[in-house]
Amino acid sequence: MTIDFTVAIPTYNGASRLPKVLYKLQMQVSVEHLNWEIIIVDNNSTDETAKLVKEFQANWRHRAKLRYCVERKQGAAFARQRAIMEAEGEIVGFLDDDNLPYSTWILEAYKFIQEYPQAGAIASQIHGDFEVEPPESLKSLVFYLAITERGDKPHIFEPRRKGFPPSAGLVVRRDAWKVSVPAQLFLVGRVGNSMIGSEDAEALFYIHKAGWEIWYNPAMVVDHVIPAWRLERSYLVNLMRGVGLARFYLRMLLLEAWQRPFAFFVYIVNDFRKLLVYFVRNYKVMESDVLVACEMERLLGTFMSPFYLFRLKFTNKSAN
Prior knowledge:
The structure is a single chain. The chain is built from eleven helices and nine strands. By secondary structure, it is of the alpha/beta class. It folds into two domains: 3-228, Spore Coat Polysaccharide Biosynthesis Protein SpsA, Chain A (Alpha-Beta Complex), CATH 3.90.550; 235-319. Strands 1, 2, 3, 4, 5, 6, 7, 8 and 9 form a nine-stranded mixed beta sheet that branches.
């Protein structure tokens, strides 16, 4: 039997979060004409994720098949790659274990990808489901928590201007990913104490480079559950540092090879200037203003990015 759609849920210690996602998937409507499946990719969880999934499978009565696999290499990039290899569907929709899809999410994703044959990936509209409403002063940081609210009309992403969408709620053509995305990305995702993400942007870069379009479809709606601790200063500062540290690699990907040596020096000088100016203007309030502290960490991470990533690349080569 041909599978039309695969829902892939990479998870790490998601036993407390997965039930809500699975219940939401059981409530999908108008998909009777589709053959679809759910794959949970356990990325070395140390909680009761495996036990939970087995219990769900034992009592599963839904027509969509519920599958489970383990990816031993730590990092979201490896988990998503495993999902692509395991998937039987022509279309793969990624949900994080804290993403709650609306009841028409699968239907709208399937319709859109049929209507737009050049779409290699489609981003969902993602709303924040906050445990604690973020204060007005932090609203500008919400974007970095994988919130994607870009209006009520579909449009194409322009990576050089606005970057790429997050992987939460992302739907891709499996063949576009398999042919375009390297089996091992340089950016692997947040592992341990490292908050360097952007592995989803790297994967989408390769899909885009291969000639596929990256779309935003507001009819595909997902709620992103955000606990209170993700609005705490320590988390936000580390998050913004990670955003900055990945910046150099993503910048270089978007340039031609001959442009990169020139761009390196231009970026270094410009990033240092921005960092210095921002520090001089705001150092007095850095301890008291979370937004200022976060922006300072992003600018500092951006300036340090090429040096940090060169060291990381050298360390990885030595380890191999």
